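Lay summary

Proteins are chains of building blocks that fold into shapes. Our project writes down both the chain and a compact code for its shape. Here are two examples, one after the other.
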Amino acid sequence: MSLFPKIAHFIRFCAKKSVPLRGVKQRAMAKKKILFINQEIAPYVPDSDMSLMGRALPQAMQEKGHEIRTFMPKWGNINERRGQLHEVIRLSGMNLIIDDTDHPLIIKVASIQSARIQVYFIDNDDYFTKRQMAVDEMGEDYPDNGERAIFFARGVLETVKKLRWVPDIIHCQGWMSAVVPLYVKTAYHDEPSFANTKVVTSLFTKSLKKDLGQNFKKCVTFREAKAELLQQYSDNFDFEELGKLAIDYSDGVILADKEVNKGLLKYANQKKVPVLDYQEDFADAYEAFYDQIYPDSE
């Protein structure tokens, strides 16, 4: 059984009653700044375990008194008018070079009124606006999904720098955010915004069908994220290799589904990364895990 029915019930309950998520309690630990980098967030994309958690978790942490920021890609199937998205001019305008090509970074924002959550969207015509999510209209993985993940990761981190906001915890959810841990610990390690940041990665059942192509390693190389750091991974960079990359540079791993990739779970245990098992009542457990990764004394 997945979390889907339970989280969906929580969200409907909160929207109707305008009250915090059930299970969210007052806490004694110090307030943290938590950056959520999500592949999917409901209601902007169809309901799934990932999209519902993408909405419910930031809401839960905000209700507990933590300061949050939330990002996701501006997928082509998102209705901007219905979602009331608008561009943030002061944050847009940067070009990110990937595979020797300039790609304009566009930042949009919208609010989930019932949850009192603001969501930032990473947009680009080539990678997102004119595309669906992971697969095209024929159900095939986009061959440049790796480049899209790289653009998304760098776009989020550059935008957080512009916001002059310093997260204590970065929580990555979905393969689209899997490059973030590498960049935080290498390319952006000396940036004041991320120098002391801890990274948590959630593992979900949802995966990619095809690999990211032999060009992925070349494209992901950036600043201190040197090519030699990627030598240990297969040249055919598939979903499992991408997960290993995220685990290697994360300070903690969360099993967000009951049935996650067994190879990735085994890998996390071998690397002795702290792992939080699947939790139906996630709010208190996730908060305690954040405190384990980033104790109040830090």
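And here is the second example, written the same way.
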Amino acid sequence: MSKPRVLMIITLDTKAEEARFVRQTLEANGVDVIHLDASIRSQVDDKAEIQPAEVAAAAGKTLQEVRDLKHEGKCQAVMIEGAVKCAQALHARTPISGVIGVGGSMGTALGTVVMQSFPYGMPKVMVSTMASGFTRPFVGAKDIVMFNPVCDIAGLNSITRDVFRNAAIATASMARGYSPVREESRPLVAMGTLSTIDRCTVRVRKALEQHGYEVMVFHTLGTGGMALDQLVKERDVAAVVDTSVVEHNDFLNDGLCSAGPDRSKAALEKGIPVVFAPGNADFMVAGPIEMARQQFPGKRYHMHNHALTAVRTEADELRKLARHLGGLIREARGPVSFFVPLKGFSNHDSPEGHLHDPSLCPVFAQAIRAELPAGVEVREFDCHINDEAFADAIVEQVLKVTHDKVAKVAA
């Protein structure tokens, strides 16, 4: 039986000693290693299976042409493009079972972009000096594990040797247990949430599971929504229940949980049925309370914890949110419905909450009706988003819009 294969991404022009150690540890733990070296300095080792010249060629340049750019960012962009192409070509020829990288900021940027090109579930381990407190640009929406080497990556010492060993052993162990994801026969529903609409989310999820669906719930704090959209691009998703719009609010108002301007586009452009609701539209997310007061002066605030503050949206922000969502939905290629609860959009926006304002839900309802195209079903409910009746209506709608897909699976 052949051993699993692990792609190792370490530049030999600056990290040859570390590369040898990681490779030896991987091989000692039962995996074969394919080393991708994206070095661009003039002197490089020639022992890697995928050498720098091959990486540059995959991006349409010679290695000397890359060096002649004399700009680290431009050089890096070429080598990233080539590294992704080389890694994917390798995987197509003989599938790999994991990826490990070691690097500083440059090596981390390259290694993690390669990792992000591989599917969920494949082991992805990055040992990086950026691992302590600055991981979002590198992890993104993928399941990448980052190890903090503590010291700079400058040779081996009693700390880094243990970190490299642990990372290599972890990668090898995961690779030996890895098998490509096999999609379930159950129709898949992707759903966004925060704890502030958890009662709604849990009821919808459990009901759909009882009807034979697989439900994946994503925590909509920025990367969660990005992961939901990435899943939609990669997998056969029957429907999306987009009931937490805080990432849209934060994009529009510079909050902490923005998922960018393309949030929700994946399902709309792919023609997947989407059920929207304005869950968490009642607030934006800011940092500690004093920072929140500086960023959003004169607002109403709720200190969620010492690090996060919910800032109440007012009529202008809700209208702006409606315009933004309406603009996205007008480009939809599949069925879209929008359900609006008129008695509150989250726990905070309830009689028991700290930001409740019953006058504002109708403002959003009127605004979204004005922004949505005629083909979108808009329904208003005289209840709170966390009431059972609202969750049950969402379930009913999902069953309705996925009936044909479910029938095909059953057949």
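What can we say about the second shape? The mean pLDDT is 93.
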